[in-house]
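Listing 4. Sequential folding, example run.
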Amino acid sequence: MEEQGTTNHSREGVNQKERKWYSLIDKIWAKPNLEEAFKEVKRNRGSAGIDRMTIQAFESQLEHHLEVVQQTLKNKTYHPKPVRRVYIPKADGTSRPLGIPTVGDRVVQAATRRILEPIYESKFMDCSYGFRPGRSAHMALKKIRQDLNDGYRYVIDADLKSYFDTIPHEKLIRMVKETVVDGSVLTLLEKFLKAGILDGGSFHLNEQGTPQGGVISPLLANIYLHPLDLAMTERGHRLTRYADDFVICCRTQKGAERILKSVTKLLEREMGLIIHPEKTKIVNSKRESFEFLGHEFKPGKWMVPSDKAMTKFKKRVKEITRRNQTVDVQQLVKKKLNPYLRGWGNYFGMADVQMRFRDLDKWIRRRLRSVQLRSWRKVRKLHREMRRRGWKSRDLPGLRMTAWRSSHSTYAQYAMPNQWFEEIGLCSLSMIYKELHPQRG
């Protein structure tokens, strides 16, 4: 009996070693962890949840709010509030639903993610790039370009239908249990998932899904798709996944068809997800284009911003540089236009966009010339600027200051040459490209 007891104890010890992470909740509610979690929430900004408490209001009594959070977690009386449903318009005319938790709930989610993420980072596969520390969309795009260069020309371009909203709760928690066995943490995760949604004054229970907008949702989404990463990696397939977007590069058409069938079986039959039948296809990359993360991969291995990305960019620039406004153009550039151009340029600047960026710079300068003409209002102000820049002729033009064609005139370009845009600090997409590709000059 004694030997049997020793054997059982030994097995139990091994089991504990394999299924570690028993006591994690105390690390989650630790004050330093909660403080760091709040800093993350503050950095990410974001609007208030259903309680209408802003980040600034939460911070004004930070010690008190963190103490309340800590005590409710310790006493197991913590209950997250329903998320506030908002809708973000998409390029195709539809809307993407987001769920905004309260600031306090975002702090708890961030504190939980800070403890769980390092555990799962040791398990996640190299083919996964979305919402992971030290990984980026650029790395995923580079990986695809390498696969295409290596001769994997047939691309499974897959799309999961409403992925974040269709993750089955029970299967997700069961998957988390394989690594995390602290019951308090599992209960906390279930509370996050089942907090409910307040949509325009109506409350809805969510039986499945993890709301986009929740701090912990990307980690849970990666955990749930880990079996896909594992299966594809073990079989030697060239999978590149960024959250719920993924492509698989294959050498042959038949191989791609076979892999797509196995992936569909895994995701739909075993994991309860839905592969979008219309948006999922097999592409011969030497003859057809495909899109991934806002980029279009064209035949010949060229990568450029997609048509949707370009349309969205031009629409936003037009909104910022509306021609019917009277403004200080330098302040407009500094506060509104430059931040957008830098973000967009750095994201898409890794693509083959040298000429495209040059053309966009010209278009942006013309739009700003039009705004400045409108803001000057009277043509004599244009004349004054022309003289200041060295205009010698006594003949000064009559010009319609509000006409779009005037922004392309010789006189507007003389008064506002390219040097003028450097003087007011306009961000240049071409300069961003040169910084990202110093070897190309």
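-- end of first protein; second protein begins --
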Amino acid sequence: MSAFIIEGGHPLKGTITPQGAKNEALQVICATLLTSEPVTITNIPDIRDVNNLIELLKEIGVKINPLPVSPKGRSMEFQADDLDLNFLESDEFVQKCAALRGSVLMIGPLLARMGKAVITKPGGDKIGRRRLDTHFLGFKHLGAKFNHVADRNVYEIKAKRLKGTYMLLDEASVTGTANIVMAAVFAAGTTTIYNAACEPYVQQLCRMLNAMGANIEGIGSNLLTIHGVTQLHGTSHNILPDMIEVGSFIGMAAMVGDGIRIKDVALEHLGIIPDAFRRLGVKIDVEGDDLVIPRQKHYVVDSFIDGTIMTLADAPWPGLTPDLLSVLIVVATQARGSVLIHQKMFESRLFFVDKLIDMGAQIILCDPHRAVVVGHDRKLTLRAQRMSSPDIRAGIALLIAAMSAKGSSRIDNIEQIDRGYEHIEDRLRALGAKIERV
């Protein structure tokens, strides 16, 4: 197990560029299973979850050819023309899927193209219940049959030919929508998905599928219409910058920045993220497609027009992504004023705040979903601590807190951070951070 040793109190200054989007990468890489022709993907983030998925695709027979690194980032060519169907049904494959939550996105493509798939409960962050009902109910609507194999604790999913239908999703699940869309591209007839997730990454997946020959309408809305086709061809696709990393860098710049420029952020795809930080008083300047966060001695939390306490809550796109609430909590500890953070989706994601309280932060955990942060206008210096990262987003939040704390902190279990952030210590050292991996 690895850890970060962070010496706090060193200001960050300079320019940083966000990596390719993790959540988009997982989707579009799985979409390469839908064709036997080559698919080139650029700006692939070099992070643990994505790399593990790539290795899994290699093991099932996908030919993966790394291409020369370009200004657009890491590029690879994928060709799924000779899949190992026996391995896809093996216990070894199931065990590897169980360790990687992104593997669930393979079900839709495999079911559509091969007529069958095997799935067990996948891994991922321990942030509360993360049910897969949306995926499974969507496949059932399309005509798939499920069989639970008790002695292997897996579900076998089969369908000779999926059939288009109307469905109303009970939640606007991003991975659920992506999985159902990938299954539906080969379904006979027309599939209509209402209450579909419309995050930029789902939009990107749909555009890539259309470039491969799919017929998807309503991209960017919560009503998708997919007219089934019989085959897809190859294409090239460029992954968006990771909006969660952009938000994380805004938080770092607010807490310990001495003038930070975040380059090439794809501003039109950030939605409400910059405004959420502005509500905490963080100054953000827009210069072209860059965000510039100047040094601030103070930042002041807004209140609502009627004078009530500011509330920041997650919501389906175009609302605030839940992945940034951990970072917003840390930023709020040094603001002037108080804010209520309402995490609606996951009932365990706020449990990391006890570590911030140990560092001296003034936070009241009201219940599993709500926390009140009392900011101290940079007058309360956080204390260095030894901590452990419970999940990706809490991990980066603790890292930001440690960089602003007095003394030397240690964060264990940083493999969690590696799952979502590319070579983070090298990139932060380039800005002036004192951080070491041990």
